[in-house]
Amino acid sequence: MYIFNYESQMGPAVAWAMAPVLRKIYKKDEEYKEALNNHFNYFNSTTVMSSMILGATLAIEEKDGIEAKESDFAEFVGCGENRYVGGVAEKYGVPYRTEMKDYLYACYGEHVKEEANIPDGVLDVLHTLRSRGYKLAVCSSADRVKVLMNLGAIGAEQTLFDHLVTGTDIKNPKPDPEIYQTGAASLGLAPAECIVVEDAPSGIRAAHAAGIQAIGLATSFPAEYLREQAQPDYLLPDLKSILTML
């Protein structure tokens, strides 16, 4: 298995690109260094989208008087935007408000179609799995509006999936098992008949809590980190590798 992958190796590029802005945000040298180092360890998107999402989120926090560090967000990756934004706000004693998330979506929606870096072969993988008779469901802790933005960005029609389960449809985000329990039920399958494809520790833990095996993709976090934090049943370097085992 790979400890390093394309996305994790892009961390230095992100840190370098964001360094001037981070220097303005973090006046103290130690906080500035921590923000830079965080990009080497918690890179969860493409260079463009990572900068946009983190930048917008940090802007929200600063607007509300929160001196958040980028490392504050790491534990909330994959838990949905309510927790991604609200969790950090709560750390600093600031009540979460929905307009915080609305601002993040406004920034995200403005750029996602033009600037998203689509995973290589994602549509081919989805269509191949469909042709092999697999039922497909999206189970994302993100709100439905963001899920639809992401599907539109990769050119995937909703009809490609049997069901969409999003953060809008559940009460408890990952790592709670509710989203995968709901997904399995929507497909008319028992958990033991399903398999989850995940790139974040919180999602792998959610799958296991639901009684479902999980394939961990080392595309957002290094393979070793996924193994240490969540123990996926299978660990693959990228999405296309799924076709070799399913």
Low-confidence runs of at least 5 consecutive residues: 1-10, 41-48
Which structural category do the helix and sheet elements fall into? mainly alpha
Global mean pLDDT: 77
Number of strands: 5
Sheet of most strands:
3 strands, parallel
Distance between the termini: 18 Å
Give the CA-based shape.
globular
Would you write up a description of this structure?
The chain is mainly α. It contains 11 helices and 5 strands, in the order αααααααβαβαβαβαβ. The strands form 2 sheets. It has a 3-stranded parallel β-sheet, covered by helices on one side. A two-stranded parallel ribbon has the order 1-2. Helix 11 links the parallel strand 4 (213-217) and strand 5.
Which features would summarize this protein structure in a list?
two-stranded parallel ribbon, 246 residues, disordered N terminus, mainly alpha, globular, 11 helices, three-stranded parallel sheet
Write the layout of secondary structure elements.
Layout: H1 6-9, H2 11-25, H3 29-41, H4 47-63, H5 81-91, H6 98-115, H7 122-131, E1 137-139, H8 144-154, E2 163-165, H9 178-186, E3 195-198, H10 201-209, E4 213-217, H11 223-230, E5 234-236
Parallel strand pairs: 1-2, 3-4, 4-5
